[in-house]
Design brief:
By secondary structure, the chain is of the alpha+beta class. Among the domains are: 46 residues; 192 residues, no CATH class. 40% of the residues lie in helices and 8% in strands. It is built from ten helices and seven strands. The strands form two sheets. A five-stranded mixed β-sheet has the order 5-3-4-6-7, covered by helices on one side. Strand 6 and strand 7 form a beta hairpin. Helix 4 crosses helix 5. It is extended and about 130 Å long. It starts with 26 loop residues before the first helix and ends in an 11-residue tail after the last helix. Keywords: Membrane, Transmembrane, Transmembrane helix. Pfam families: SBP_bac_10. This is DUF1559 domain-containing protein.
């Protein structure tokens, strides 16, 4: 303690500290917060806010974790191309050699005398990793920009009363069908026939049945009696099983016919998936991005195994016998021959629709 002349520290009394004012309890705010949380819990329990909440959480959830089910779904169907792997390895080795030589030639040593003494294989590996990472980031950014542009220009609302995730699931169904068709083409050199028929005209098997091994349904394909027609008693059991990519996520649609066969809510383009034998990529002379491959249907549902589950899109959209949607938005999801999924309005120009339906009509397809 600091001392002062003529002052006895023992007689000095400390000054009383002023009382610290207590913070007033915000009872009103606490009461309002509890009341709000109570109403929120009540609405959630009644299901009044569940669709809205799921819709808000859907986009960030898919951005963060959507790649996990995508990898689980597509990796088993990916085939490794040895030539492509060897080419990539050779190019990567050439890049590493060039970076290493340039690094040792252009970087001065630690003591300033002699070139390349400060550059080693670790620096080469880091540089190559950076180049590959930048390339992958560029590809990812391009894909993300493409998808964002598609979402912005799509006539389908991002969140709608149709139900969170249903539109995305419907798009995913068509993407799975497109991937299976392309894998079939890679194995057989052409798309499957829309349907095969016997000498008497009786239907044998449809195009979806031949995709089973490419839809993670190899076990189901083994139970199919290929020597019997699709509707023979021996084939009733496998064809009564629903095929997930062909089942629409929207409620209210029939799931089986009167005989118990599982129905398809998507159909192929009869001009590409033709009878007896399907077309190849070379036959689609109008361009893969300008030719329809499959789409949603709104009526006349057939079993997914039916050999006649292919339609002529040129009939019109939301018209019996053509592609269509059971939703009120007037927008139909379709699969293009290149495997992409897009939307079409039911008011599309019939001439444009016919041009998209033909694989080799030679028409000029304007914007639609």
């Amino acid at each position: 303690m600091k001392s002062y002349p003529g002052v006895d520290p023992a007689t000095v009394e400390p000054l009383p500290c002023p009382p610290v004012p207590e913070k007033p309890e915000r009872k009103e705010l606490s009461w309002l917060l509890r009341l709000g949380l109570s109403f929120l819990a009540l609405f959630l329990c009644c299901g009044l806010l569940t669709p809205w909440l799921l819709g808000v959480l859907e986009l960030p959830g898919r951005l963060l974790f959507g790649w996990i089910p995508f990898l689980a779904r597509t990796l088993p169907q990916v085939s490794v191309d040895p030539v492509g792997v060897a080419t990539f390895a050779a190019l990567l080795a050439g890049l590493a050699a060039a970076v290493h030589v340039l690094g040792r030639w252009g970087l001065p040593g630690d003591n300033g005398a002699g070139a390349g003494r400060g550059w080693g294989w670790r620096s080469t590996a880091a540089s190559c990793g950076l180049v590959v990472s930048l390339f992958a980031a560029g590809v990812a950014a391009t894909g993300a920009g493409h998808q964002i542009g598609w979402l912005v220009n799509s006539p389908v609302p991002l969140f709608s009363r149709e139900g969170p995730g249903r539109r995305s699931q419907a798009q995913n169904n068509l993407k799975q069908i497109g991937l299976a068709l392309h894998n079939y083409h890679a194995q057989h050199g052409r798309f499957p026939a829309g349907g095969t028929f016997g000498p008497t005209g009786r239907g044998e098997h449809g195009w979806a049945t031949r995709l089973l091994p490419h839809l993670d349904e190899a076990a189901l394909a083994e139970r199919v009696r290929w020597d019997e027609p699709w509707d023979a008693p021996a084939n009733r059991e496998p064809f009564a099983k629903p095929l997930p990519p062909f089942a629409s996520p929207y409620p209210g649609l029939p799931t089986e016919d009167a005989d118990g066969y599982a129905l398809a809510h998507y159909a192929g383009n009869a001009r590409v998936l033709t009878d007896k034998v399907g077309l190849s990529f070379l036959d689609v002379r109008d361009g893969m991005t300008q030719t329809l491959l499959a789409g949603e249907v709104a009526d006349g549902f057939l079993p997914w195994a039916h050999p006649a589950n292919a339609r002529d899109p040129a009939v019109g959209l939301n018209i019996r016998g053509g592609f269509g949607s059971t939703r009120d938005s007037g927008v139909i999801l379709v699969l293009m021959a290149n495997g992409s999924v897009t939307t079409m309005s039911e008011t599309i120009d019939p001439a444009v629709l016919k041009a998209l339906a033909t694989p080799a009509g030679g028409e000029t397809v304007p914007e639609y």
